[in-house]
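Design a sequence for this backbone.
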């Protein structure tokens, strides 16, 4: 029918489990949870797993916390530390590491402005290393950052811009920050995904561009993203599911009908809803009304996590000094 729009490997795995009632062959999953954050690591280990999931081989780490939508200072600090820990484990083990941080997205469209706003808070140091002709430092590494905009505002393919920068500055790793799409409202602005496979800008909203990955750029690419939107079909599907559950508990005469609806697979219900909406051009992308404040908080959390992960001398007590 229709392909469910999601950038989250965790959700692709859930769809497979709902249909097959088993784990995906060639995929290993483990979870770690504390009081505030659930960390799920999905390791796509071979080609079979990659083909089933439609994802490249590599590690996909998801941090889930409903409190992200209205995070207080302590929770933001905690999630930044968890993010930093997961990022550090994925960075190349190399002396005098050099990193390029890329903020993808359109800074004029709030749900898509996560990347640019996060990059604005990155502690960049490459110019200092060049100015003082330093090769290494005990407290920081050589970091550069760029927010290249989108093709609609620059006329240039984002991947080509980044490739040119990588060829000139020669980083050892590229960290890409972007807004994503989810298949569940409960994960919008409440989930951070980290992956070692790079990213295809716009894929979650059906506007896939040139991939930013190790194959295209020649260096390892770590992607960090947050789902900030769902499509209208997903929102409608979630709402209908809640209505079905409520009515099936209360209605006696119609219980068989509601039970039948409940047994429909998620993808089948989603496809039916999209089929109804498509002729009216109503399958739009939806985001919460508080998105301005949410993006500011999320960009701070992600920037803090990246700063702590990249720079050996920066920890939680220092990190907020570099936000401007």
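Sequence:
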């Amino acid at each position: 029918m229709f392909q469910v729009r999601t950038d989250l490997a965790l959700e692709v795995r859930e769809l497979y489990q709902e249909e097959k009632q088993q784990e995906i062959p060639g995929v290993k999953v483990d979870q770690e949870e504390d009081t505030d954050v659930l960390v799920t690591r999905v390791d796509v280990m071979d080609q079979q797993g990659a083909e089933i999931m439609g994802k490249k081989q590599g590690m996909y780490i998801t941090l889930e916390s409903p409190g992200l939508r209205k995070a207080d200072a302590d929770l933001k600090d905690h999630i930044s530390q968890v993010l930093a820990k997961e990022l550090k484990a994925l960075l190349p083990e190399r002396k005098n590491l050099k990193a390029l941080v890329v903020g993808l997205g359109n800074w004029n469209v709030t749900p898509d402005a996560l990347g640019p706003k996060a990059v604005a808070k990155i502690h960049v140091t490459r110019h200092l290393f060049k100015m003082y002709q330093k090769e290494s430092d005990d407290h920081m590494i050589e970091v550069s950052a760029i927010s290249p905009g989108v093709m609609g505002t620059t006329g240039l393919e984002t991947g080509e811009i980044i490739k040119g920068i990588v060829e000139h500055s020669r980083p050892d790793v590229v960290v890409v920050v972007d807004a994503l799409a989810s298949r569940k409202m409960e994960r919008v602005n409440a989930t951070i995904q980290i992956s070692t496979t790079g990213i295809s800008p716009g894929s979650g909203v059906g506007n896939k561009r040139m991939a930013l990955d190790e194959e295209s750029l020649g260096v390892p690419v770590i992607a960090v993203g947050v789902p900030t939107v769902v499509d209208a079909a997903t929102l409608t599907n979630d709402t209908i599911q809640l209505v079905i559950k409520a009515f099936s508990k209360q209605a006696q005469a119609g219980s068989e009908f509601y039970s039948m609806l409940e047994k429909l697979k998620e993808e089948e219900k989603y496809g039916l809803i999209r089929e109804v909406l498509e002729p009216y051009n109503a399958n739009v992308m939806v985001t919460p009304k508080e998105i301005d404040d949410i993006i500011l908080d999320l960009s701070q959390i992600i920037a803090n996590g990246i700063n702590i992960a990249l720079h050996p001398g920066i920890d939680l007590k220092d990190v907020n000094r570099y936000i401007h």
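The longest strand covers residues 221-231.
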